[in-house]
Amino acid sequence: YSLNGVPCRGKVLTVDNMNPNVKRVEYAVRGPIVQRAVQIEKELREGVKKPFTEVIKANIGDAHAMGQKPITFLRQVLALCSYPELLEDNKFPEDAKKRAQRILGACGGHSIGAYSASQGIECVRQDVARYIEKRDGGIPSNPDNIYLSTGASDAIVTMLKLLVCGEGRDRTGVMISIPQYPLYSAALADLGAVQISYYLDEEKCWSLDVAELRRALNAARQHCNPRVLCIINPGNPTGQVQSRQCIEDVIRFAKEEHLFLMADEVYQDNVYAEGCKFHSFKKVLFEMGPEYSSTVEMASFHSTSKCYMGECGFRGGYMEVINMDPEVKTQLTKLVSVRLCPPVPGQALLDLVVNPPQPDEPSYITFMKERTAVLSALAEKARLTEQTFNAVPGITCNPVQGAMYTFPRITLPEKAIDKAKEEGKVPDMYYCMRLLEEEGICLVPGSGFGQREGTFHFRMTILPPTEKLKVVLQKIRDFHVRFTQEFS
Amino acid sequence: MNAALSTRGGSQEKMTENGMMSRAKVLTIDTINPTVKKVEYAVRGPIVQRAVELERELSQGMKKPFAEVIKANIGDAHAMGQQPITFFRQVLALCSYPELLSDNTFPEDAKSRACRILQSCGGHSMGAYSASQGIDSVREDVARYIERRDGGVPCDPDDIYLTTGASDGIVTMLKLLVCGEGASRTGVMISIPQYPLYSAALAELGAVQINYYLNEEKCWSLDIPELQRALDEARQYCNPRALCIINPGNPTGQVQSRKCIEDVIQFAAKERLFLMADEVYQDNVYADGCQFHSFKKVLFEMGPEYSDTVELASFHSTSKCYMGECGFRGGYMELINMDDEVKAQLTKLVSVRLCPPVPGQALMDLVVNPPQPGEPSYDNFIKERTATLSALAEKAKLTEQVLNTVQGISCNPVQGAMYSFPRITIPEKAVKEATEKGQQPDMFYCMKMLEETGICLVPGSGFGQKDGTYHFRMTILPPSDKLKILLDKVKEFHQKFTQQYS
């Protein structure tokens, strides 16, 4: 009732009559703790006094936001594509101009403002296929199996959407690791599919164990129709780089159990640890011979957001589909056409990522220098992070073998867990909120990614510049000691 | 060979030719998401696929009755030769490669816009993720634009969500709205004809599409009794909750009168419908006596009884108007009177996809914050903008005129947007042949036109039309001289076709 006594009606769209699946969606990477971090930033700007002068957003894999520089060559070509008058400008190297002209030649009206084909600009898809072939030692890639996308997230969601069907006990089940990157849990909630969790082995450096896959699958068969197995390699949040043997085992398992494989490989250039190497699922699949390579259905995903580029804002990405049924492929092509096309600047950027300066080209040396600097800085920070955390009593940190994150396990005193419960918070959220309020460091609690019951973690990026990272690590160390003390 | 599909346990065996057991695939047309199968999107449907095939054949040297395929199926201005706005591209280049800020070939106003945008980006780079709702300063600029456009009606930047094209915002909104089962399933009202993103999204979401017919005899105007009819009928089998309107219209080009917009708002208020106003063509108004009236402005001018209560989402984009920057996928939606808890859910939902493309956000910033009088780029900007819009107005007129000279084609005035949607008379014999071939008659017609003239249009059946009527949608985007030729060829084809099937 309004003030004057006239009955006023509820809104048309309320929390009670909105899409129920949407309510189930959570995405911790930008969830409540980040919202609080943004609020605190606002307060700082307004002059509110805090125990710190800035908020450090170590919650999200956003390299440029943390000071990483873009690759010069990539940005030169993008500028040329945006404003082709610059092709007359001799500040730009010839190889940049050539790439820009090739891209523009493939665009409608020679403009990046035209829609592209819905599957993505053809010559970019050809370049992606050639890149995959080079990467995989010559295993053929058909450009027709490449779909450019709005970041890898777009393609992952599209693939999951295609796969979901059935009702009740026949509802599609999708296997995903615990811990996982919460796009997967969010997408499965949104689609009303069944999430089938398989635990990575923290004691064994977050490795994947086929016996655990089998356990999870068999349990799931009681209440859903498992059809898909998702794997993130290198891993997010865990950073593990799976061994070749493991990848073979997963492929074998997928074939035996008739599962569609989704291989999220967006961190494929981010491999740091000695003895670790990125093995693409496709390469391993084909090396296992035709019994596997002509039957296992697979989609692999890549992005311009990570690796050495860190171009998150451009939303560039692609997926390669292997052994997809042609009728399904037609449906996929139809589905992506409704959204017209992925952003063309992102497609252009992807073209450069898969077709970078070659040794005989003018931009090569600078390109390699910049690329190497970024990747070696990350490797350094990965090592530093692991070392520092492992020196803290109550924090254990697996080696950061790859990707951009550390996911250390934290011991929380019983009293702290009780306090968290009182406040209606999950214990590691309580911990991270305290860290945010006291130190201005924003991490994501492990509960946002999934973890074994009774264990607690947080995910922190290794992206801040080395000097700042050292300070962040020290502050977390000091906080942890204080926190443990407070609740002892 | 058939695949008897078991649902669990994975094993779906079938016999191959050599007697070996092989399995059906995990993902087949029978096990794919059933709502995806129901999705159609004619603007890039079968006729366009055939057009692409023909282009390939032409490039391989095959002889055809035409030298090029003209893709008049899609509202892609740049693909049809329209030039980008210089100022926008200058700023985008500066944002992409900030070293250019020291280059004196760029005007100061472009540089200052670029600096402002970059300052709002993480690490001063367009490569950083933005806030999921969109860059703060861009949303502020969008809000100021809306206030100026709407004669001062206040706009809160917090009600603005930047999106990956308008399509993204529209699909997100529809997703939020859909709930219920069976007779309580959400119903969404959309015009016939409509832009088939709506029908596609509703099919995918498993929502109920409620068709209301625009009045072809009255220049595609919207008629409240027709809305009422459609709604009352729909209440028998679904729960109608949303009303979508595209103004200026796609494919019809009609620009609704202010009175009509008031009536629609009143209707939505009375019938408790969430209003979705697709206004991506708001600068594309050509006909004398026509004017764009934003739903929000009209809503607020109707007083607090309406402006405090009617829930409205309006959508805009960088793809149309005078910019035509389709490839950047820039857009926004403004939400009026949305429940706070729902807004929190929306914010959460868009966070999963991180953020819309930053170049598109930057572009949107320039669209809503263009060169002002006194700024170095102003004259050139206005010149380019005016040239584009007046060319479109010219082509709208030309199209209507030429098509109306053809016996068997009648074309309503193209009041706005970028398309003509003329009605075509198809001879009985042709309808029969089409039916025999399992094709919609206007698809049959358009396919023939494509094969014989290389002109690619979209059949009216892709947008919806009254039973027994046929149309096609053609863009008015090709350059004037090419458009003239195009229109003459369409005329010629129609006459030949009519003759052939008389």
TrEMBL record, chain A:
The major lineage groups are: Eukaryota, Metazoa, Chordata, Craniata, Vertebrata
- Cite the InterPro entries for this sequence: ALAT1/2-like, Aminotransferase_I/II_large, PyrdxlP-dep_Trfase, PyrdxlP-dep_Trfase_major, PyrdxlP-dep_Trfase_small
How would you summarize the oligomeric state and partners of this protein? Homodimer.
What does the record give as EC number?
Answer: 2.6.1.2
Keywords on this record? Aminotransferase, Pyridoxal phosphate, Transferase
Q: What protein is this chain from? A: alanine transaminase
The chemistry this enzyme catalyses reads:
L-alanine + 2-oxoglutarate = pyruvate + L-glutamate
Q: In which pathway does it act?
A: Amino-acid degradation; L-alanine degradation via transaminase pathway; pyruvate from L-alanine: step 1/1
Q: Where is each Aminotransferase class I/classII large domain found?
A: 77-476
PANTHER family in alphabetical order: ALANINE AMINOTRANSFERASE, ALANINE TRANSAMINASE
Write down the SUPFAM superfamilies for this protein, in alphabetical order.
PLP-dependent transferases (SSF53383)
Q: What class of enzyme is it?
A: transferase
- Matches recorded under Pfam families: Aminotran_1_2
Family of the protein in this entry: Belongs to the class-I pyridoxal-phosphate-dependent aminotransferase family. Alanine aminotransferase subfamily.
Name what cofactor the protein needs: pyridoxal 5'-phosphate
This molecule's function is given as:
Catalyzes the reversible transamination between alanine and 2-oxoglutarate to form pyruvate and glutamate.
Q: Which GO terms describe its molecular function?
A: L-alanine:2-oxoglutarate aminotransferase activity; pyridoxal phosphate binding
What Gene Ontology terms describe where this protein resides (cellular component)? cytoplasm
TrEMBL record, chain B:
- Record Gene3D superfamilies: 1.10.287.1970, Aspartate Aminotransferase, domain 1 (3.90.1150.10), Type I PLP-dependent aspartate aminotransferase-like (Major domain) (3.40.640.10)
| Keyword Transferase belongs to the record | yes
**What InterPro entries does this protein's entry cite?**
ALAT1/2-like, Aminotransferase_I/II_large, PyrdxlP-dep_Trfase, PyrdxlP-dep_Trfase_major, PyrdxlP-dep_Trfase_small
The prosthetic group or cofactor this protein requires is:
pyridoxal 5'-phosphate
Functional pathway: Amino-acid degradation; L-alanine degradation via transaminase pathway; pyruvate from L-alanine: step 1/1
> Single Gene Ontology BP term?
L-alanine catabolic process
The reply on keyword Transferase is yes
Q: Per the record, what are the reactions this protein catalyses?
A: L-alanine + 2-oxoglutarate = pyruvate + L-glutamate
Its EC number(s): 2.6.1.2
Under Gene Ontology molecular function, one entry of this record is: pyridoxal phosphate binding
Enumerate the UniProt keywords alphabetically.
Aminotransferase, Pyridoxal phosphate, Transferase
Which residues does the UniProt record annotate as the domain Aminotransferase class I/classII large?
Answer: 123-489
Q: Which CDD domains match?
A: AAT_like
Give the record's family classification.
Belongs to the class-I pyridoxal-phosphate-dependent aminotransferase family. Alanine aminotransferase subfamily.
- Quaternary data: Homodimer.
Tell me the protein's name. Answer: alanine transaminase
What is the species of this protein?
A: Amphiprion ocellaris
